Automatic annotation (TrEMBL):
Belongs to the glycosyltransferase 2 family. Gene3D superfamilies: Spore Coat Polysaccharide Biosynthesis Protein SpsA, Chain A. Residues 10-127 form the Glycosyltransferase 2-like domain. It holds the Pfam family Glycos_transf_2. The lineage of its organism: Bacteria, Bacillati, Actinomycetota, Actinomycetes, Propionibacteriales. GO terms for molecular function: transferase activity. This is Glycosyltransferase. The keyword Cytoplasm does not apply. CDD domains: DPM_DPG-synthase_like. It comes from the Bacteria. Keywords: Transferase.
Length: 222
């Protein structure tokens, strides 16, 4: 049932983020409800999320896009947000983004990561992000400088866009389709902090991981 007090469901794709979730869920702003999507965690992520009051959704297919999509389908609020579950970004930074969508006529608000310390953002991930964001900016006309690591929009708008990628090309396909659909996008600065101690990057934390993202992105662009 839809809880009248919840304006925005926050989808948090999580693979082995049990150590980070107590930090992520320590301070959930009023009006937000967290939906943790677990696929294939082996560290008790789902149990930790549940014990901290989050809604937990299971998805059998592996992949970032599969997890995000399952969370968006399970969400019930009018607005939906997506954020990493590694404590590198803060739930509170979603609030001005939500405001832009709710009251300023923006179709989607996306985050632009601003590292709070040296070493937070590995060089290869940053270089890959810069190259792809530049490509998206030129081809879409969106004034963006990052790959929408955090985003907020109306849930139905996102479902209507029909993003199909289920791996790491998901954010890129989202931006390409949003541009074709005539969405307006606003980029908002967000803090980018070290991921929680005891957790490991699954996407861009290694050169290999970054290479996999670039490969998935190339498939979207073909
Ligand atoms: N459910 C699920 N979550 C994933 C998967 N891959 C990555 N994630 C989550 O997606 C978010 C982004 O991944 P992360 O490891 O932080 O990538 P990075 O920010 O590039 O280092 C994190 O919350 C991960 O736990 C996956 O296959 N399934
Ligand atoms: Mg992360």
């Amino acid at each position: 049932m839809v809880d009248a007090g919840v304006t925005c469901d926050v989808v948090v794709p999580c693979r082995d983020e049990a150590a980070a979730l107590p930090l992520v869920l320590a301070d959930v702003p009023a009006g937000l409800r967290v939906v943790v999507v677990d696929n294939g965690s082996t560290d008790g992520t789902a149990d930790v999320a549940r014990s901290l009051g989050a809604v937990v959704v299971h998805e059998s297919r592996p992949g970032y896009g599969a997890a995000v999509h399952a969370g968006v389908e399970a969400a019930e609020a009018e607005y939906v947000a997506v954020i990493d579950g590694d404590d590198s970004m803060r739930l509170a930074d979603l609030l001005p983004m939500l405001d832009a969508v709710r009251t300023e006529g923006v179709t989607m608000a996306v985050g632009r990561r601003r590292p709070v310390a040296r070493g937070v953002w590995p060089w290869h991930a940053r270089a890959g992000t810069l190259a792809l964001a530049t490509w998206i900016r030129r081809s879409s006309g969106f004034g963006i400088h990052d790959l929408a690591p955090m985003r907020v929009c109306r849930r139905q708008d996102l479902l209507d866009l029909d993003v199909r990628d289920r791996r790491f090309g998901y954010p890129l396909e989202l931006m390409v389709k949003a541009s074709r659909a005539g969405w307006t996008v606003r980029e908002v600065d967000v803090d980018y902090r070290p991921r929680a101690a005891g957790t490991r990057s699954k996407v861009s934390g290694s050169v290999k991981g970054t290479a996999r993202v670039v490969q998935d992105f190339a498939k979207v662009l073909r």
